[in-house]
Structure formats: structure tokens, C-alpha cells
Design a protein that fits this description.
Order of helices and strands: HHEEEHEEEEE
Helix content: 10-25%
Transmembrane segments: 35-52
Pfam families: DUF2271
Number of domains: 1
CATH class: Mainly Beta
Keywords: Membrane, Transmembrane, Transmembrane helix
CATH architecture: Sandwich
Largest sheet: 5 strands, mixed
Shape: extended
Protein name: Putative periplasmic protein
Number of helices: 3
InterPro entries: DUF2271
Length: 186
Amino acid sequence: MKPPPVPFNQRPVRRVDRQPIVIPLIGVLNMNKRLWIMALVIGIAAAAPAYARSMTLTTELSNYSGDGAYLAIYIADQAGAYQQTLWVAGRKSKYYRHLGGWARGSNLDSSEFDGRTGASVLKGRTLSTTVEIADNLIDAGYQILIDSSVEDKRDIRNDVSVPLTQANSAKAVSGRGYIKAFSFTL
């Protein structure tokens, strides 16, 4: 006659001593030092980020009547679709929705502009800031757009639109509203 089955949670635990698995490293230890160095260099090169360069943005405002202007400086593709925020002038995020094209493109996601903001710009003043930009965006059909807004005045989408090319570097362009002149220097 068979003994009655033992419930699962009351079964005795059988210990099994396992021996550590030793991986033979003889072939690896005898590898040529040059191969190690080459593998290290290739690994570092493959993990390197895309090249970037500094770009200085200079925005001069006209002498309009009113308070300081909120500006959104951003990159868009050939079709005008938002790609990346370069700079936002204006500290109170509740007014960012007035920067139409940029607000729609960035969805006002704070991760899009964290660390890329500053105070609003007063009439007749100049905003100059330096940002990092990926080399692959230059001469690739992208453009720099600026949306502007002033309290109790109209909001201007695409106050400035300039192709992001080497040829346009350091050339001033006129704005359509509150911006008197804009230039970027690569």
C-alpha cells in the first residue's frame, strides 16, 4: 500500500550543492594587447553622441508699445513641423500658449524647454543667447522659427523664419512684428 501524498507546501526541501561554473579565460588572457585597445577605441567611438556645435542667437526687438515680449525660438522641418526648442524668453509658463506654432508643436511639454528659458525681452532690447545644435540639422532643410507675443497685443506666429544653413549664418533678417532683426552665428 502507498503512503498518502504529502501536500506541496510540506514536502521536504532537497538541497543540491552546485559547483561554480568556471569559464576558461585562457584564450582571453592570451589575447594581444593591440586587439584590446582597438576594441576599446571602437566601443568608445560607437557610443559617442552626434557632433554638436555652439550657435549664438541674437534677437533685437523693435520699439513697439507695450510690455516685454515672450519669444519661442525653435527648429522646424521643411513643412513647418516642430522639431526642437532652442530658447524660450518669458518666465511665466501660463503665457506660453500664446506662442502658437511652438505651443502646438511642443505640446507645452516642460521637458521640451527645461533649462532653455529666460526672462521676457523688453522693447528696443536685444536678446543674445548661445545654444548647442546638432551638426546634422545644418544645411539639411530645417529652419529657425520665432513666435512672439506681448501682453494685451496680438500674438505673432512665425515672426521670423530663416533657413538653418551655413550661408545664412551671421546674416540679419527682419521680423514681421515685434522683432526688428534676428541672426544666428554658427
